Amino acid sequence: MSSDHIFQKFCHEATSTAIFGEIICQKLKEPIEQSVYKKTARDLASEMRTECPSLNGNRSNLEKHILETLAEEEDFDKYMDYIHNPRDHFKSFIRDEVSIYITDKFSVSVLPKMKENIELLQQKIMKAAHESTEHVQENRGDVGLWLKSFTQRLSDELIFSEKDLCGVKHDDIDVDFKILEDVIRKELSSITSNIHKTNISNKKMDFRFRPDELLIDHFCQCCWVHCPFCGATCTNAIENHHGDHSVAFHRVIGIKGSHCFLSQNFCVDICTNLVASDKDFLTLDGLFPCNEYRKAGGVYAKWSITPDCFELPYWKWFVCRFQKDLENHYKEKIVGKGEIPNQWKKLRKQDAIESLDKCF
Protein backbone atom coordinates (compact mmCIF):
# COMPACT_ATOMS: atom_id res chain seq x y z
CA MET A 1 0.00 0.00 0.00
CA SER A 2 1.46 3.35 -1.05
CA SER A 3 2.10 6.15 1.42
CA ASP A 4 -0.49 8.30 -0.41
CA HIS A 5 -3.15 5.63 0.03
CA ILE A 6 -2.26 5.21 3.71
CA PHE A 7 -2.51 8.98 4.18
CA GLN A 8 -5.87 9.12 2.39
CA LYS A 9 -7.18 6.25 4.53
CA PHE A 10 -5.99 8.01 7.67
CA CYS A 11 -7.67 11.26 6.61
CA HIS A 12 -10.88 9.40 5.79
CA GLU A 13 -10.87 7.65 9.17
CA ALA A 14 -10.03 10.86 10.99
CA THR A 15 -12.81 12.77 9.23
CA SER A 16 -15.36 10.00 9.78
CA THR A 17 -14.30 9.69 13.40
CA ALA A 18 -14.53 13.44 13.98
CA ILE A 19 -18.02 13.64 12.49
CA PHE A 20 -19.14 10.58 14.42
CA GLY A 21 -17.72 11.97 17.66
CA GLU A 22 -19.46 15.30 17.12
CA ILE A 23 -22.77 13.54 16.51
CA ILE A 24 -22.39 11.52 19.72
CA CYS A 25 -21.65 14.67 21.72
CA GLN A 26 -24.59 16.53 20.22
CA LYS A 27 -26.80 13.66 21.32
CA LEU A 28 -25.19 13.82 24.75
CA LYS A 29 -25.65 17.57 25.18
CA GLU A 30 -29.14 17.60 26.68
CA PRO A 31 -28.63 14.54 28.92
CA ILE A 32 -25.42 16.14 30.22
CA GLU A 33 -27.20 19.42 30.97
CA GLN A 34 -30.04 17.66 32.76
CA SER A 35 -27.65 15.51 34.78
CA VAL A 36 -25.59 18.50 35.92
CA TYR A 37 -28.67 20.59 36.74
CA LYS A 38 -30.30 17.69 38.58
CA LYS A 39 -27.24 16.93 40.70
CA THR A 40 -26.58 20.62 41.40
CA ALA A 41 -30.24 21.17 42.30
CA ARG A 42 -30.09 18.33 44.81
CA ASP A 43 -26.87 19.69 46.28
CA LEU A 44 -28.39 23.16 46.58
CA ALA A 45 -31.63 21.89 48.11
CA SER A 46 -29.60 19.99 50.69
CA GLU A 47 -27.45 23.04 51.41
CA MET A 48 -30.47 25.31 51.78
CA ARG A 49 -32.04 22.94 54.28
CA THR A 50 -28.96 23.57 56.39
CA GLU A 51 -28.07 27.19 55.67
CA CYS A 52 -31.40 28.91 54.96
CA PRO A 53 -33.21 29.74 58.26
CA SER A 54 -36.70 29.31 56.83
CA LEU A 55 -35.88 25.94 55.27
CA ASN A 56 -33.65 24.31 57.88
CA GLY A 57 -36.41 22.75 59.95
CA ASN A 58 -39.86 21.25 59.65
CA ARG A 59 -43.04 22.72 58.19
CA SER A 60 -43.85 24.52 61.45
CA ASN A 61 -40.54 26.37 61.26
CA LEU A 62 -41.27 27.28 57.65
CA GLU A 63 -44.72 28.53 58.61
CA LYS A 64 -43.22 30.67 61.36
CA HIS A 65 -41.00 32.40 58.80
CA ILE A 66 -43.94 32.85 56.46
CA LEU A 67 -45.94 34.53 59.23
CA GLU A 68 -42.96 36.72 60.16
CA THR A 69 -42.58 37.80 56.54
CA LEU A 70 -46.28 38.56 56.24
CA ALA A 71 -46.14 40.70 59.38
CA GLU A 72 -43.05 42.56 58.17
CA GLU A 73 -44.60 43.28 54.78
CA GLU A 74 -48.10 44.07 56.12
CA ASP A 75 -49.68 43.17 52.78
CA PHE A 76 -53.34 42.28 53.31
CA ASP A 77 -53.73 40.54 49.95
CA LYS A 78 -50.83 38.24 50.76
CA TYR A 79 -52.43 37.44 54.09
CA MET A 80 -55.65 36.49 52.33
CA ASP A 81 -53.70 34.27 49.96
CA TYR A 82 -52.03 32.55 52.92
CA ILE A 83 -55.33 32.14 54.80
CA HIS A 84 -57.41 30.85 51.89
CA ASN A 85 -54.73 29.15 49.75
CA PRO A 86 -52.06 28.04 52.23
CA ARG A 87 -50.53 25.33 50.08
CA ASP A 88 -50.02 27.65 47.12
CA HIS A 89 -48.69 30.33 49.43
CA PHE A 90 -46.15 27.92 50.91
CA LYS A 91 -45.00 26.98 47.42
CA SER A 92 -44.67 30.60 46.37
CA PHE A 93 -42.71 31.43 49.52
CA ILE A 94 -40.31 28.52 48.96
CA ARG A 95 -39.73 29.59 45.35
CA ASP A 96 -38.96 33.13 46.49
CA GLU A 97 -36.55 31.88 49.17
CA VAL A 98 -34.73 29.66 46.66
CA SER A 99 -34.53 32.45 44.10
CA ILE A 100 -33.06 34.85 46.66
CA TYR A 101 -30.60 32.24 47.92
CA ILE A 102 -29.39 31.33 44.44
CA THR A 103 -28.98 34.98 43.48
CA ASP A 104 -27.07 35.79 46.67
CA LYS A 105 -24.92 32.66 46.61
CA PHE A 106 -24.46 32.17 42.87
CA SER A 107 -20.72 32.83 42.70
CA VAL A 108 -19.79 31.25 46.03
CA SER A 109 -22.04 28.20 46.00
CA VAL A 110 -23.98 27.56 42.80
CA LEU A 111 -21.14 27.94 40.30
CA PRO A 112 -18.63 25.88 42.33
CA LYS A 113 -21.19 23.07 42.66
CA MET A 114 -21.95 23.15 38.95
CA LYS A 115 -18.24 23.16 38.12
CA GLU A 116 -17.58 20.20 40.40
CA ASN A 117 -20.51 18.21 38.99
CA ILE A 118 -19.45 19.02 35.41
CA GLU A 119 -15.90 17.87 36.04
CA LEU A 120 -17.05 14.64 37.68
CA LEU A 121 -19.40 13.91 34.78
CA GLN A 122 -16.71 14.67 32.20
CA GLN A 123 -14.39 12.24 33.94
CA LYS A 124 -17.06 9.53 33.95
CA ILE A 125 -17.85 10.06 30.27
CA MET A 126 -14.19 9.92 29.27
CA LYS A 127 -13.68 6.85 31.43
CA ALA A 128 -16.65 5.19 29.71
CA ALA A 129 -15.20 6.09 26.29
CA HIS A 130 -11.75 4.74 27.18
CA GLU A 131 -13.07 1.51 28.70
CA SER A 132 -15.30 1.01 25.67
CA THR A 133 -12.29 1.38 23.38
CA GLU A 134 -10.41 -1.23 25.41
CA HIS A 135 -13.46 -3.51 25.29
CA VAL A 136 -13.66 -3.24 21.50
CA GLN A 137 -9.96 -3.89 21.07
CA GLU A 138 -10.04 -6.92 23.36
CA ASN A 139 -13.03 -8.38 21.51
CA ARG A 140 -12.06 -7.18 18.03
CA GLY A 141 -15.38 -5.41 17.87
CA ASP A 142 -16.74 -2.61 15.74
CA VAL A 143 -18.45 0.75 16.20
CA GLY A 144 -21.69 -0.94 17.23
CA LEU A 145 -19.99 -2.76 20.09
CA TRP A 146 -18.28 0.46 21.17
CA LEU A 147 -21.61 2.31 21.27
CA LYS A 148 -23.29 -0.47 23.22
CA SER A 149 -20.48 -0.53 25.77
CA PHE A 150 -20.35 3.28 25.99
CA THR A 151 -24.09 3.77 26.60
CA GLN A 152 -24.27 0.93 29.12
CA ARG A 153 -21.43 2.39 31.16
CA LEU A 154 -23.22 5.74 31.31
CA SER A 155 -26.68 4.35 32.06
CA ASP A 156 -26.44 5.26 35.75
CA GLU A 157 -25.26 8.79 35.01
CA LEU A 158 -27.25 9.95 31.99
CA ILE A 159 -30.66 9.42 30.47
CA PHE A 160 -29.05 8.17 27.29
CA SER A 161 -29.13 4.89 25.38
CA GLU A 162 -28.41 3.31 22.02
CA LYS A 163 -31.93 4.27 20.96
CA ASP A 164 -30.86 7.92 20.99
CA LEU A 165 -28.41 7.06 18.20
CA CYS A 166 -30.78 4.88 16.19
CA GLY A 167 -30.87 7.44 13.38
CA VAL A 168 -27.10 7.53 13.06
CA LYS A 169 -25.75 5.08 10.50
CA HIS A 170 -22.46 3.69 11.71
CA ASP A 171 -22.18 0.23 10.14
CA ASP A 172 -19.93 1.42 7.33
CA ILE A 173 -17.97 4.01 9.30
CA ASP A 174 -14.23 3.61 9.70
CA VAL A 175 -13.47 4.80 13.21
CA ASP A 176 -10.17 5.35 14.94
CA PHE A 177 -11.22 4.91 18.56
CA LYS A 178 -8.25 6.80 19.97
CA ILE A 179 -9.13 9.78 17.80
CA LEU A 180 -12.77 9.34 18.84
CA GLU A 181 -11.79 9.77 22.49
CA ASP A 182 -9.93 12.99 21.64
CA VAL A 183 -12.93 14.31 19.69
CA ILE A 184 -15.31 13.55 22.55
CA ARG A 185 -12.97 15.22 25.04
CA LYS A 186 -12.82 18.37 22.90
CA GLU A 187 -16.57 18.49 22.24
CA LEU A 188 -17.38 17.91 25.91
CA SER A 189 -15.35 20.97 26.88
CA SER A 190 -17.42 23.07 24.50
CA ILE A 191 -20.73 21.68 25.77
CA THR A 192 -19.91 22.02 29.45
CA SER A 193 -18.54 25.55 29.15
CA ASN A 194 -22.02 26.72 28.15
CA ILE A 195 -23.66 25.10 31.16
CA HIS A 196 -21.98 27.60 33.49
CA LYS A 197 -23.92 30.38 31.80
CA THR A 198 -27.30 28.77 32.46
CA ASN A 199 -29.47 29.59 35.48
CA ILE A 200 -30.07 26.53 37.64
CA SER A 201 -33.76 27.51 37.93
CA ASN A 202 -34.36 28.24 34.27
CA LYS A 203 -37.19 26.75 32.25
CA LYS A 204 -34.91 24.47 30.23
CA MET A 205 -34.53 22.28 33.25
CA ASP A 206 -37.02 19.55 34.06
CA PHE A 207 -39.12 21.35 36.68
CA ARG A 208 -39.26 18.23 38.88
CA PHE A 209 -35.55 18.54 39.57
CA ARG A 210 -35.25 22.26 40.23
CA PRO A 211 -34.15 23.05 43.80
CA ASP A 212 -37.38 24.89 44.56
CA GLU A 213 -39.51 21.97 43.40
CA LEU A 214 -37.41 19.50 45.39
CA LEU A 215 -37.96 21.60 48.51
CA ILE A 216 -41.67 22.03 47.76
CA ASP A 217 -41.94 18.27 47.46
CA HIS A 218 -40.17 17.91 50.81
CA PHE A 219 -42.27 20.43 52.72
CA CYS A 220 -45.66 20.13 51.05
CA GLN A 221 -46.25 16.38 51.02
CA CYS A 222 -48.27 16.61 54.23
CA CYS A 223 -51.78 17.24 55.52
CA TRP A 224 -53.53 20.39 54.27
CA VAL A 225 -56.96 19.93 55.82
CA HIS A 226 -58.37 23.16 57.28
CA CYS A 227 -59.97 23.59 60.68
CA PRO A 228 -63.72 23.93 60.02
CA PHE A 229 -63.94 26.89 62.39
CA CYS A 230 -60.86 29.07 61.85
CA GLY A 231 -59.27 27.61 58.73
CA ALA A 232 -55.90 26.81 60.32
CA THR A 233 -54.09 23.96 58.56
CA CYS A 234 -53.57 20.59 60.23
CA THR A 235 -49.92 20.22 61.19
CA ASN A 236 -49.63 16.47 60.65
CA ALA A 237 -46.63 15.73 58.45
CA ILE A 238 -48.39 12.83 56.71
CA GLU A 239 -50.94 13.33 53.98
CA ASN A 240 -54.12 11.24 54.44
CA HIS A 241 -52.96 10.36 57.95
CA HIS A 242 -54.89 8.25 60.43
CA GLY A 243 -56.50 9.82 63.46
CA ASP A 244 -57.75 13.31 64.15
CA HIS A 245 -56.58 16.51 62.55
CA SER A 246 -55.06 19.05 64.90
CA VAL A 247 -53.12 22.30 64.98
CA ALA A 248 -50.88 23.78 67.65
CA PHE A 249 -52.46 27.24 67.52
CA HIS A 250 -55.88 28.15 66.23
CA ARG A 251 -56.79 31.56 64.85
CA VAL A 252 -59.44 34.19 65.31
CA ILE A 253 -62.40 32.57 63.57
CA GLY A 254 -63.46 35.71 61.72
CA ILE A 255 -60.30 35.96 59.64
CA LYS A 256 -61.57 33.28 57.28
CA GLY A 257 -64.93 35.02 56.94
CA SER A 258 -66.98 33.44 59.73
CA HIS A 259 -69.44 35.72 61.51
CA CYS A 260 -71.20 35.67 64.86
CA PHE A 261 -74.20 33.37 65.20
CA LEU A 262 -77.48 35.11 64.27
CA SER A 263 -75.66 38.22 63.06
CA GLN A 264 -73.49 39.46 60.22
CA ASN A 265 -70.80 40.74 62.55
CA PHE A 266 -67.18 39.60 62.49
CA CYS A 267 -66.42 36.75 64.93
CA VAL A 268 -63.49 37.39 67.29
CA ASP A 269 -63.70 34.00 69.01
CA ILE A 270 -60.79 31.58 68.86
CA CYS A 271 -61.50 27.86 68.48
CA THR A 272 -59.87 26.86 71.75
CA ASN A 273 -62.14 29.12 73.81
CA LEU A 274 -65.16 28.51 71.60
CA VAL A 275 -65.19 24.76 72.31
CA ALA A 276 -65.13 25.53 76.04
CA SER A 277 -68.13 27.85 75.80
CA ASP A 278 -71.88 27.30 75.83
CA LYS A 279 -72.26 28.92 72.41
CA ASP A 280 -73.83 27.21 69.41
CA PHE A 281 -72.84 27.07 65.76
CA LEU A 282 -74.94 26.47 62.67
CA THR A 283 -74.27 24.01 59.84
CA LEU A 284 -76.42 22.81 56.97
CA ASP A 285 -77.48 19.95 59.23
CA GLY A 286 -78.68 22.17 62.03
CA LEU A 287 -77.60 23.84 65.27
CA PHE A 288 -74.93 22.27 67.48
CA PRO A 289 -73.29 23.22 70.80
CA CYS A 290 -69.67 24.30 70.36
CA ASN A 291 -68.53 22.23 73.35
CA GLU A 292 -69.86 19.14 71.57
CA TYR A 293 -68.78 20.17 68.07
CA ARG A 294 -68.01 16.59 66.96
CA LYS A 295 -71.74 15.84 67.01
CA ALA A 296 -72.03 17.98 63.88
CA GLY A 297 -70.32 15.10 62.07
CA GLY A 298 -68.48 15.43 58.78
CA VAL A 299 -65.33 17.54 58.98
CA TYR A 300 -66.12 18.53 62.57
CA ALA A 301 -65.94 14.94 63.77
CA LYS A 302 -62.42 14.57 62.38
CA TRP A 303 -60.83 17.40 64.35
CA SER A 304 -59.37 17.42 67.85
CA ILE A 305 -59.81 20.91 69.31
CA THR A 306 -59.06 21.14 73.01
CA PRO A 307 -59.84 24.09 75.30
CA ASP A 308 -56.70 26.12 75.94
CA CYS A 309 -56.20 29.30 77.92
CA PHE A 310 -53.23 30.32 75.74
CA GLU A 311 -54.07 32.21 72.57
CA LEU A 312 -51.47 33.27 70.01
CA PRO A 313 -51.17 37.10 70.13
CA TYR A 314 -50.19 37.15 66.45
CA TRP A 315 -53.73 36.81 65.11
CA LYS A 316 -55.11 39.29 67.61
CA TRP A 317 -52.62 41.87 66.31
CA PHE A 318 -53.56 40.95 62.75
CA VAL A 319 -57.26 41.62 63.37
CA CYS A 320 -56.47 45.01 64.91
CA ARG A 321 -54.00 46.00 62.19
CA PHE A 322 -56.27 45.01 59.32
CA GLN A 323 -59.69 45.74 60.82
CA LYS A 324 -60.86 47.95 57.96
CA ASP A 325 -59.46 45.58 55.35
CA LEU A 326 -61.26 42.63 56.94
CA GLU A 327 -64.53 44.55 57.13
CA ASN A 328 -64.28 45.55 53.47
CA HIS A 329 -63.18 42.10 52.34
CA TYR A 330 -65.92 40.14 54.10
CA LYS A 331 -68.57 42.90 54.15
CA GLU A 332 -68.85 42.49 57.92
CA LYS A 333 -68.56 44.92 60.81
CA ILE A 334 -66.26 44.28 63.75
CA VAL A 335 -68.76 45.60 66.29
CA GLY A 336 -71.19 44.31 68.90
CA LYS A 337 -70.48 40.68 69.73
CA GLY A 338 -67.62 40.83 67.26
CA GLU A 339 -66.01 43.91 68.75
CA ILE A 340 -62.25 43.75 69.27
CA PRO A 341 -61.31 43.42 72.97
CA ASN A 342 -59.40 46.46 74.24
CA GLN A 343 -56.38 44.42 75.35
CA TRP A 344 -55.86 43.25 71.77
CA LYS A 345 -55.43 46.84 70.63
CA LYS A 346 -52.35 47.21 72.82
CA LEU A 347 -50.43 44.60 70.83
CA ARG A 348 -47.67 45.84 68.54
CA LYS A 349 -46.29 44.18 65.44
CA GLN A 350 -43.16 43.30 67.36
CA ASP A 351 -45.28 41.58 70.01
CA ALA A 352 -46.91 39.52 67.28
CA ILE A 353 -43.58 38.48 65.74
CA GLU A 354 -42.02 37.68 69.11
CA SER A 355 -45.00 35.51 70.00
CA LEU A 356 -44.12 33.31 67.02
CA ASP A 357 -40.61 32.74 68.38
CA LYS A 358 -42.07 31.60 71.69
CA CYS A 359 -44.70 29.32 70.20
CA PHE A 360 -43.11 27.69 67.15
SSE blueprint and pairings:
Elements: H1 3-51, H2 59-73, H3 76-84, H4 86-139, H5 143-153, H6 177-195, H7 211-220, H8 271-274, E1 280-283, E2 286-289, H9 313-321, H10 323-330, H11 349-359
Antiparallel strand pairs: 1-2
Helix pairs in contact: 1-4, 1-6, 1-7, 2-11, 3-4, 4-5, 4-6, 4-7, 9-11
Describe, in short, the structure shown.
This is Interferon-induced very large GTPase 1. By secondary structure, the protein is an all-alpha fold.
**Helices and strands, in N-to-C order?**
HHHHHHHHEEHHH
Q: Strand arrangement, largest sheet? A: 1-2
Q: Report, as a whole number of angstroms, the end-to-end distance.
A: 84 Å
| Total of domains | 2
Question: Mind telling me the C-alpha Rg?
Answer: 31 Å
What is the arithmetic mean of pLDDT?
A: 87
Relative strand content: under 5%
**Unreliable residue runs:** 1-12
Number of strands: 2
The major sheet is characterized as: 2 strands, antiparallel
Q: Name the helicity range.
A: 55-70%
Number of helical stretches of at least 4 residues: 11
Structural class: mainly alpha
Query: Which of globular, elongated, flat, extended, rod-shaped describes the shape?
Result: elongated
Protein name: Interferon-induced very large GTPase 1
Organism: Cyprinus carpio (Common carp)
Structural notes for this entry:
- With 360 residues, the chain is an all-alpha fold.
- The chain folds into two domains: 3-219, no CATH class; 253-359, no CATH class.
- Helices cover 55% and strands 2% of the residues.
- It is built from eleven helices and two strands.
- It has a two-stranded antiparallel sheet.
- Strand 1 and strand 2 form a beta hairpin.
- Helix 1 packs across helix 7 and helix 9 runs antiparallel to helix 11 (349-359).
- It is elongated.
- The model is unreliable at 1-12 (pLDDT under 50).
